[in-house]
Automatic annotation (TrEMBL):
Protein name, entry field: Iron complex transport system substrate-binding protein
UniProt organism field: Dyadobacter jejuensis
Signal peptide: none
Top-level taxonomy: Bacteria, Pseudomonadati, Bacteroidota, Cytophagia, Cytophagales
GO BP, one annotated term: cellular response to iron ion
Alphabetical list of InterPro entries matching this protein: ABC_Transporter_SBP (IPR050902), ABC_transptr_periplasmic_BD (IPR002491)
Entry superkingdom: Bacteria
One family name in Pfam for this protein: Peripla_BP_2
PROSITE patterns in UniProt: FE_B12_PBP
Segments forming domain Fe/B12 periplasmic-binding: 120-395
Coiled coil: none
């Protein structure tokens, strides 16, 4: 047997009264009102404002390797936070990426607002050109700190057409020109030398400045993943997810192949210059390349931030035994004679004697720009393939060196 609720019993009694004393129409109104209201226990109250905000970003990117920034999504805006952008600072820089026409979200009083997708960009580093090229977005670039060191054919063509102008850098930054250009964003290079304070006037003029400090990342894939930051600025998450996913997959495939060889030849990096030999430390992305390519490295156990400054005498014993010697200069070393002109003691190195000396200068153009620092930054799988070809040519017999070349 079903027991009627207190609300239903009250409705039945009122129905009887209404049939006796009121017109049928009034009776119907009372019953409808009673049933629609019910008791507090029989209904679920909804807030007065029931409007639901649509998610403006159905396609999202996740940050899986990079440690220097985070990307989070909210219904009407994206949030980027860049950690310790100048290495020695513990501050976090916050950027609110807001679609045009959307109201600014509450809070974030210290965060810079960037309207997306950005349509006019000024960059301060050639590495940023690699990010644009990866996403085929070169057309948004209108200014650079310096126009000299450019490898991208598309960017060079835009410079030739005077669609990109030099804006200066550091103490020579042309603020008046930048204010007149009014870019949607200035992407600065994060370094202790390039302080964010120098852009204070531009921020006051309503021009957002974003610090890109990818160079502080300690792995090749982490450095390359900063392309997702650029994609978030351009609303190109779908494209970057597909393309970067393919890069990461290929990098891991190649790394797994290089784990097969039993021998792990020793590798020496860099060149002595101005009384100092800077070598990668064990926390550097360059060491990660060597390790993933199947090589061993003398300073792998030293964990630090940045390169290790050593004397020639400290490196010399390692050079005598190293099987391979890579990264010997940035374009001014073309042959063995050039090396010996720098220091005759290089002739004592095992790698020199066995013609195992390499530089990442195969793609240096006549302007002195090195594509290793542009497209190479977002294609670590190609650099890794080069290094595997150098250290273990039998693993990739069909690969042709792309960024590296032998010094003969």
């Amino acid at each position: 047997m079903i027991t009627a609720s207190p609300t239903n019993r009250l409705a039945n009694r009122l129905a009887t009264i209404c049939q006796t004393f009121f017109r049928p129409t009034l009776f119907v109104l009372i019953i409808v009102q009673l049933v629609s209201c019910g008791s507090d226990a029989d209904r679920t109250d909804k807030p007065a404002n029931t409007a639901e905000v649509d998610d403006l970003f159905p396609v999202k990117s996740s940050i899986d390797y990079a440690q220097g920034f985070s990307l989070t999504y909210h219904d009407t805006y994206k949030l980027i936070q860049i950690y310790s952008p100048f290495e020695t600072s513990s501050d976090t820089a916050t950027y609110v990426l807001l679609p045009r026409g959307q109201a600014k979200p509450p809070g974030y009083t210290d965060g810079q607002i960037i309207e997306i997708p950005i349509q006019r960009l000024v960059t301060m580093s050639s590495m940023h050109l690699g990010l644009l090229g990866f996403l085929q977005a070169e057309d948004i670039l209108i200014g650079m700190g310096d126009l000299k060191y450019v490898s991208s054919p598309k960017i060079l063509n835009r410079i030739k057409e005077e669609k990109i102008v030099a804006v200066g850098r550091d103490q020579m930054l042309n603020e008046e020109l930048l204010v007149a250009m009014h870019p949607g964003l200035i992407m600065a290079m994060g370094s202790p030398v390039s302080k964010i304070g120098q852009y204070h006037g531009l921020r006051e003029a309503g021009i957002p400045v974003m610090v890109n400090s990818e160079w502080l990342e300690t792995s090749p894939l982490a450095r390359a993943e900063w392309v997702k930051l650029m994609a978030a600025l351009l609303n190109k998450e779908a494209e970057v997810n597909t393309r970067f996913g393919a890069v990461a997959k290929e990098y891991h495939r190649l790394s797994a192949l290089a784990k097969g060889p039993i021998d792990r030849p020793s590798v020496l990096c860099g060149l002595h210059s101005r009384d100092t030999w800077y070598v990668p430390d064990g926390d550097s992305y360059m060491y990660q390349y060597i390790r993933d390519a199947g090589g061993s490295y003398h300073w792998a156990h030293i964990k630090a931030t940045g390169s290790l400054p050593l004397s020639f005498e400290q490196v010399y014993p390692v050079g005598l035994k190293a099987d391979f010697w890579i990264n010997v200069g940035s374009g001014n070393i073309e042959n063995r004679s050039d090396l010996l002109a720098k220091d005759g003691r290089y002739a004592d190195f095992k790698a020199f004697q066995r013609d195992r000396v390499y530089a990442f200068t195969k793609r240096v153009n006549d302007r002195g720009a090195n594509d290793y620092w542009e497209s190479g930054a977002v294609n670590p799988q190609v650099i890794l393939a080069d290094l595997i070809k150098i250290l273990h040519p039998e693993v990739l017999p069909d690969h042709e060196l792309f960024y590296y070349k032998p010094i003969q």
